[in-house]
Amino acid sequence: MSSKKKKRKFKGTLQGVILSEFADNPFKALNYKQIAFNLGIRDKATRDMVRRVIDQLYEGGDLIEVKKGKFMLPAEKLSEFANKHKYITGTVDMKETGKAYIFSDEGGDDILIMPNNLNHALNRDHVKVLILPKRKGRKPEGQIVEILKREKDTWVGVFEKSKNFGFVVPDSKGMPYDIFIPREKMNNAVSGQKVLAKLTEWPEHSNNPFGEIIQVLGQPGDNDVEMQSILSEYNFPLSFSKEVEKEADKIKYKLTKEELKKRKDFRDVFTITIDPWDAKDFDDALSIRKLKDNLWEVGVHIADVSHYVKPGTALDKEAYDRGTSIYLVDRVIPMLPEKLSSGVCSLRPNEEKLTFSAVFTMNDKAEVLSQWFGKTVIKSNRRYAYEEAQEIIETGKGDYPNEILTLHKLAAIMREQRFNNGAINFNSLEVRFKLDEKGKPIETYIKEQKEANHLVEEFMLLANKKVAEHVGKVDRNKKAKTFVYRIHDEPNPEKLNTFVQFLKKMGHHLNISNRQALAQSYNQLFNKIRGKGEENLIETIAIRTMSKAIYSTENIGHYGLAFPYYSHFTSPIRRYPDMMVHRLLERYLERKPSVNQEEYEAYCKHASDMEKRATEAERESIKYKQVEFLQDKVGKVFEGVISGVSKWGLFVELTVSKSEGLIRMQQMKDDFYVLDEDNYRILGRNTGMVYRLGDKVNVLVKKVDLGRRQLDFELVE
Fold first, then answer.
1. Helix intervals (H) in 309-400
2. d(CA 202, CA 153)
3. How far apart are CA 651 and CA 647, in angstroms?
4. CATH number among 2.40.50.140, 3.40.50.11540, 3.30.870.10, 3.40.50.300, domain 630-716
5. CA pair distance 693, 7, nearest whole angstrom
6. C-alpha angle 537-538-543 in degrees, rounded to nearest 5
7. H or E segment to which residue 154 belongs
8. Strand, coil or helix: what is 104?
């Protein structure tokens, strides 16, 4: 019995259906083949009919021909269409697959953008999006119709030269197109070099953007070149301008009699700093002295950066633009020139320094009985590395043990109270590297957080909290003055429920009945998994369920710390928001009027954006070193934990370096494996073999691609 293909039935006339298809793609030129494909037409006769109808619509003025054989709706039809359809604005989040998602400015669901609807938009661009008709069971989709603002127009990549032209192959997955470089814009670059290219134009009908090489960075694989590439990729400057350096060079420490009158003198009060052993920018110090009746005076003294860096100066503008210092694996890119960050402002031992202080009177229960905020002058007695302070805490021996142990005791009480009040004890593992003289990683280790770290942390948290309370906590009938808060919203309920289901399948429980129960449940979970193979996996996913902490003038409290009021006061050498907090606190202590909230909200948004960008650059440098560490270890076997399951295969995180690589499903020859997405596992169809998220496995390093920062692993028994 012969079978015939069913002809497609259309609702309405073919003309109407074709016009609707153009209306669904109002800013895209389409030919008859694309229209036929979109309509599911495969037979030649009907496709020819589509071509004839399009020609008729063109002749009748219902379509315009923008390129030979490609048509779209005319302008008057577009405006008519625009009035009937919804648009949003948002930010592009590019994926490796070529798809993208739009984070809407108004919140709500992310909008999926297929590659053919990107219209030359790139990662993090701010765009206008047309919402397409929703298809049943599919995510909301859109089409980018306008690029409102390019996030960046420079890209790092490897230059490939031919006879009359060249291409830059970008490092970033956020730029999935090679950049065409005309011969006259190569800037003496040599094939194979890392370069910085600037986009100059992107013709409408060109798949690739055009650009020019503005800087030759050097040879791929060289440590300095790679670190500079990361900084350039994220638009961070590699040096300070001459104007900024000149301003910094003019700044000198000077304590006049007039200045001393404005400050409390703490030079004779026992004061210390506790920092990493290799730190240079000491921006916080602690003082302690015993008062009568078993009371203690504890001072949190912060470098008075705003005394030296004045609004409107080149220094201030540079600090604002950078927003933060950046901590790559092997270097610090300071927010302020070294003359200030490691010199005039740094609270080095046995040197007089100007500070802005929060001073607390506390009892043996670590309760704050009184507080004072103001300008001070200090002279640090001793600089401790964390390891030195930790040894005193553990042994009771060393320089000034009584003072260190008292601070430790008070901090430990505050820490316990904080967790009892609903703070969440996140303890994500941080990988560190021991580097050789050329910057190559020769060893990895996990950064430890011990009591000495907690000592400093608790007093910094106290100062940040109390400063925010001082400005923001006012009577109900009063309006608080504009201030810069560090806020952290509650978890997204949908993400939280997904995490609960994930934990259930991993054999864990999370109580989400109320805020207090959730915090306690989180902390119990983290204690339960401490030291186990699944620890880093679960904590990483837990952090992803959380909202991101940001800066804002609208205070909603800090969820993770369980503080109704919180700010950043304690690190003005390396964070611009802290400098804003110093200026505002000084202003309000002098009883001056509030500043403009809208203006400061814009400053907060910029600071949050720069912090996010710096974090991404720091992660990129870590990822590079993780891959580089394994470059000479191809063929070696390591223990790891399955950290992801997808249709492509298994992602495995190595225990030793936290490097993540892929075991490709097609390379698993012992069985035919299928993905069980709901249960985070893959199943062998014949053997019944199961590999699930969190399982420990041994893997062989099969391939290391340093350029792409990618690792391929192979399962071993």
1. 314-322, 338, 386-395
2. 11
3. 11
4. 2.40.50.140
5. 47
6. 100
7. strand 154-161
8. strand
Residue 126 burial by Cβ neighbours in a 10 Å radius (0-12, 13-18, 19+) = middle
- Indicate if the pLDDT at residue 9 is higher than 60: no
302-346: per-residue pLDDT in tens?
Answer: 999 999 999 999 999 999 999 999 999 999 999 999 999 999 999
Amino acid, res. 69: G
Indicate the class that CATH gives domain 14-80: mainly alpha
Q: Are 366 and 410 in contact (CB under 8 A)?
A: yes
Per DSSP bridges, beta strands 368-379 and 264-265 are parallel
pTM: 0.85
Number of H helices, E strands in the chain: 18, 33
Name the CA radius of gyration of the chain, rounded.
30
Give residue for tokens 């910029």: 606
Structure token digits, residue 229? 């590439």
The DSSP bridge partners found for residue 681 are 676, 692
Fold of the domain built from segment(s) 86-149: OB fold (Dihydrolipoamide Acetyltransferase, E2P) (2.40.50)
302 within 8 A of 356, measured Cβ to Cβ: yes
Residue owning tokens 């300008």: 375
Q: Could you tell me how far CA 263 lies from the centroid of its own chain?
A: 39
**Distant-in-sequence, close-in-space partners of 467: CB < 8 Å, separation ≥ 6:** 358, 373, 567, 569, 581, 585
Could you tell me the pLDDT band of residue 85, with boundaries at 50, 70 and 90? low
Among 475, 481, 466, residue whose Cα is nearest residue 565: 466
The one-letter code for the residue type at 354 is L
Determine the topology of domain 154-220 in CATH: OB fold (Dihydrolipoamide Acetyltransferase, E2P) (2.40.50)
What are 26-66's pLDDT values in tens digits?
A: 777 889 999 988 888 888 888 889 999 999 988 888 899 88
Q: How does DSSP assign 32-77, residue by residue? A: HHHHHHHTT--SHHHHHHHHHHHHHHHHTTSSEEEETTEEE--HHH
